[in-house]
Amino acid sequence: MLFKLPDDKTLYKALLTRDGQFEGHAYVGVKTTGIFCRLTCPARKPKPENCTFYATIGACIEAGFRACKRCHPLAPAAKADPTIGALLKALDDRPAFRWAESDLTRMGFDLSTVRRSFKRQFGMTFLEMARLRRLREGFETISNGGKVIDAQLDAGFESSSAFRAAFATLLGCAPGALGTTGLLLADWIETPIGDMISLCSTTHLHLLEFIDRKALPAELSRLNAMAKGEIGIGRTARSEQIRAELAAYFSGESAVFATPTALYGSAFTRAVWGELQKIPAGETRSYGQIAQQISRPSAARAVARANGANQIALVIPCHRVIGADGALTGYGGGLWRKQRLLEIEQEYKNQTLKA
Fold first, then answer.
1. Residues 6 or more apart whose Cβ sits within 8 Å of residue 132
2. Among all residues, which ones are annotated catalytic?
3. 235-252, pLDDT tens digit by residue?
4. Is 135's pLDDT higher than 70?
């Protein structure tokens, strides 16, 4: 990178004055909204503690921020890559359209070029981006008490079977199986580093995962079987609690999660999860250290498996476990998210040291 960002104080001043000297070289991600902007954005200015500055659009997207609709930070990048520009416009013009590879071919695009371009810029393909946007519309319709057919139409699916198949791929069950009542209710939660799904009863949090985690459908399927099919879409007091705690966490107010959790696993697995919850925000442990702390010093690999089996992200902070050499290791939500979470929590540690 040829351009080195100045300090945050200088960049925040540029944001307040809408200084154009950093145009194309600096962007701001706003933790409280999950939006990233140009420094010249006319929108109301966030507090400095809610700002994170990045040198590239790709870094903003990797950190989970969505593009601002007022200053359109994607516009220059779209102009630089005609393929991306044309398809982003097409997606905005027809957000409910069910895009397929044949549509891209018919528009004259080379599929491999489109795939590479979107993967490079956004970490997902154009079709994945379009599909997630449509399914989210359908999810919210059902969550608000709408019928499955209304959710299907809101999601832009002409075929009910296609909607059910797409919904099942994402959530592990058909939309008709998810009413607004049930022993467990699913809620869709936006965060600055990507959308999450919570699954709560009236008393406990049973699941909290990023929506793009590959294991999510299987996890939901297992919980659906345990609940004997009584999973719905909606909110309980516990889902409202975890939603509020996540908002406080990402806004820098609190790293404490007090929502009661329902844990599914062996005694060993639950012991590992219990030890994870003892790691203070801003600190990390290795798998070997966790094994020592639960009096199973030779069980580092088993600790790693238990860590990977966690289905209540952040609350049970498996992201705080790293390799013995200090390197980031596998994380179901993606290593970029693990890095971002550790960066967020380092700020909590700094606050504690200053107190």
1. 124, 170, 211, 212
2. 318
3. 889 999 999 999 999 988
4. no
